[in-house]
Amino acid sequence: MSDQHWPERTAEYPLECDHCHYPIPGDPVASDDGRYCSVACREADDNTTLPDPQAYKRVVTGVEPIDSLVPNGIPADSFLLLSGDEGTSRAELGIELVWRALERGEPAVVVSLANPPTATLERFYQNGWNVLPALENDRLRIIDCYTHRLDDRDGFRAQRTEWPTFLGEAAADAIVEVRDPSDRSEVTHSLTGALDDLEMSETGLVTIDSLDELERVFQDRQVHEFVEEIRATVCKARFVPIVAAASTADEDDIPEAEYVFDGIVDLRLTEQRAPNTRHKQLAIRKLIGAQFLPQWIQYDHEPARGLFAASPNTGRSTQQGYEVGTELSQPDRP
Asked: What is the mean pLDDT of residues 240-254?
């Protein structure tokens, strides 16, 4: 097939490879049944055609303040750290990211270290988000790294009131108990097993509710090694993003934050001119492979609505959450 049979190439509409779907930088590789950027793609296309990378390599989170700062989406192979003060709705942000994934019809896995599974699920209900259908449809898993740290697990279960008892029974098949949370390999295998069961590849989201708790459970450099391992096997191999939360109070304990994580979202409380007033602000400190607005944005949180960008003066919602004309930061390089 010759060039004359293909659409005219322009800067805005370059020719795309029929296998990898990326632009063809030079002349296409000759073929009778398609156009390819390389011999490797032409030969691979005889067996399978890759999906369009735009379908899975970028994630629009559905969380207004984050999406307003990262308008083109977060790379799906990212390990993100939510680093924030107490009182910045850091936990609510992690829960909302999972809910928005479920809303998109995608699966999700929550690694629960700070709370028992029923308390983790209750965070959704406190926001008006019913996750029972997702549990029944096998789209949500909870990796329970909390319960087996209790001395009296039976007593804990016996003392639960009617609602958490019902919730625990309804979610029983979706809860993966980690019997030794201090064993890094068991936590890793529990996570990868849940990903396999939910067929999570190029779809979905994983959240870890507390790296601070993980630091207390693990020993020595195991948090660093755990983060590096699941970043490679989950984010980079499967194109499933991971979001982990940590308190800035324990930031010195976070394993080389600037190095290990692909992106860091900072959340803070700031003093305002009005007396006794503190507002929440959010910013992207780094994000490899994506453009973002390098500035602080004020936000608030409401049940059902989740996090929303707010006007600095009134606290009301804004359309964009940032000033018109602000230039995007260029993507960081790995």
From this structure: 78
